Amino acid sequence: MTTSTSARVGSADAGPAPVLAARTRGLRKVYGRTVAVDRVDLDVPVGAVLGMLGPNGSGKTTTIRMLLGLVRPTEGEVELLGQALPDGVAAALPHVGALVEGPGFHPFLSGRENLRRVAAFEPLLATGSARQAVEDALERVGLGAAAHRRYRGYSLGMKQRLGLAAALLVPRRLIVLDEPTNGLDPAGTREVRGVIADLHAAGSTVVVSSHLLSEIEATCTHVAVLHRGTVVAQGGLAELLQADSSSLLVTTPDVEQALNALRAGRISARPTEEGVRVELIGTTAPAVLEALVRAGVAVHEARRHRTGLEDLFARLTEAEEGDHNLSAVDTIEEGAR
């Protein structure tokens, strides 16, 4: 079943803004003998753009559906905008816009007519402003010129755009997008990136689910990596990549002298095009620089090697292949805000 959720439930105020826009503890979903999600503890900080990253079948969509109250968990707790679900769903959902598992609209109506029907049930949208809100949303996602066409004639990318427009009819505290660039060409993908950047700049919290590492790295401030139904890493994207960095790149013209000095100190190093790469195993960056300077090596620059998200993802998921303990979670703690 495909769902396009635009938060049509209730109109009560969701209350004061919490520190976390969404939170799960011990979240588990079982279908028959299949464990789709297993003991997921997820934190979505307010104002973050959090990327839920994982291969197909990793539990991303099931987790999102439980976050939105579309699926009841087998076990565990869910909080959305400070409201415990399911009791708080009517208070929270009007402030949430979502596109989950692809949009679902009436095939014989135009894009504009479909969006007007959605707007008619939008609790945060005043009746007199609905038409303008629809036009603004269509333009925002690049569908203004095709708004008169029937939905059944839309391409997959255009259908994705219309679903995104439905989620953006009014300002939201939380936007949840499940594979938002699915079916989009490169230009459409760039436009979605721009929309996410605008939402972030406006103070909205955004959760983006994707199996495309490049999209997560280009748009997100935080990341949660899912594999086999559990979270194997989560935290700030920069902190995750920095924490996985275990080497120092030193730019120097004195490569041989640097290698000799480091090896004399039992520090593992190898030459690179610009100098040497030092493995920070059993040592620290200051100790490396001290050894080089003491040996008279000219150090032009020293920087930590930045691990790419692709490398980090491969390391995490490959490690899990041989580990049947699905409760293991590598969490990078957030610093003081």
Automatic annotation (TrEMBL):
PANTHER family with a match to the protein in the record: ABC TRANSPORTER, ATP-BINDING PROTEIN
Q: Spell out the protein name for this chain.
A: ABC transporter ATP-binding protein
* InterPro entries hit by this protein: AAA+_ATPase (IPR003593), ABC_transporter-like_ATP-bd (IPR003439), ABC_transporter-like_CS (IPR017871), P-loop_NTPase (IPR027417)
One GO MF term attached to the UniProt entry: ATP binding
Family in the record: Belongs to the ABC transporter superfamily.
- Pfam families, sorted: ABC_tran
- What keywords sit in the KW lines? ATP-binding, Nucleotide-binding, Transport
Residue span, ABC transporter domain: 22-253
Cite the Gene3D superfamilies for this sequence: P-loop containing nucleotide triphosphate hydrolases
